[in-house]
Design a protein that fits this description.
By secondary structure, this protein is α/β, with parallel strands linked by helices. About 45% of the residues lie in helices and about 15% in strands. It is elongated. About 40% of the residues are buried.
Length: about 290
């Protein structure tokens, strides 16, 4: 099924959806990117090479998919809407592989891993999707670059610095496993239907991290942020419980790792969380999560 201007035309999109009896589902955050310049920016950030394996999360009607296919990449799309899957099947045939279902579950289940991942992510599940990718060692160990369109507030959480309200365990995960960079905003007019928020493009370049250390880092961040206004010392009991170790032992490792027990988690930089995780891995080698 050729696009015939479909990707850039709200009218043609409405007609196609009406003809097929498809209704956009708010819970899935379905907004189609109708600006060709925006799609080109995203693919330029992704920098796919001919012959590479590219995963696209949430294909919509295939606007970005078409650009990826045009670059000669091996494309797999992850889509939850069966009506949209039918459109992709008709438009691209066997050129594109489709994985049906919730991407949070289906992405980690894949035996193989891609070279690059791209997606115009639904606002409500963007953090869960990104986390599922960054927490999958076999994917993170191969993928070269990830480029996503997310709500601007989500993008700010990804790159948040210490001592800010946006800084969180999700920020720590993103910054320990990748080098994230904001690549510009996209106004509401780039999408149909126009969302109520401004979107941002975020590019993430993975950095090597041992899977066991990454898992310990996530455990430490979640535990120490559990009661945000309390000090590290006061949240150490939660970390000790998660590690199944005496709290005094955990406090000792925190100090060895250079974490100030009188500080709050929001003051602990990602690299310090990473050092803490490495120390925990050394001190408690039998910890299995």
């Amino acid at each position: 099924m050729p696009s015939s201007g479909l990707d850039d035309s709200p009218r043609l999109i409405r007609e196609l959806l009406d003809r097929r009896g498809l209704a956009l589902k708010k819970r899935w955050g379905q907004n189609f990117m109708i600006a060709a310049s925006a799609r080109e920016r995203i693919v330029a950030e992704l920098h796919p090479q001919s012959g590479e394996v590219v995963w696209e999360v949430g294909s919509g009607l295939g606007a970005i998919t078409a650009l990826l296919v045009g670059r000669g990449t091996d494309v797999t799309v992850f889509e939850v809407d069966y009506g949209l899957m039918k459109v992709i099947e008709e438009r691209f045939g066997a050129t594109v592989r489709i994985v049906a279902g919730d991407a949070v579950k289906t992405i980690p289940e894949q035996a193989a891993a891609p070279d690059r991942i791209v997606g115009n992510l639904p606002y409500r599940s963007a953090a869960a999707i990104i986390s599922s990718i960054l927490e999958a060692p076999h994917i993170l160990g191969r993928v070269k670059r990830l480029v996503f369109t997310v709500q601007r507030e989500m993008a700010q959480r990804i790159v948040a610095r210490t001592r800010t309200s946006d800084y969180s365990p999700f920020s720590v995960l993103c910054q320990v496993t990748t080098r994230p960079r904001l690549a510009g905003d996209l106004s509401r007019g780039n999408f149909y239907p126009a969302p109520d928020v401004v979107s941002s493009i975020v590019a993430l370049e993975p950095t090597p991290v041992d899977p066991a250390v990454r898992a310990l880092c996530a455990t430490a961040a979640r535990s120490l942020f559990a009661q945000r206004r309390k000090t590290v010392a006061n949240n150490a009991a939660g970390l000790a419980a998660a590690l199944r170790r005496p709290v005094d032992e955990v406090k000792r490792v925190l100090s060895i790792a250079g974490v100030d027990l009188s500080s709050r988690a929001e003051e602990v930089a990602p690299e310090r969380f990473l050092e803490l995780a490495r120390r925990l891995a050394d001190e408690f080698p039998d910890y299995s999560g």
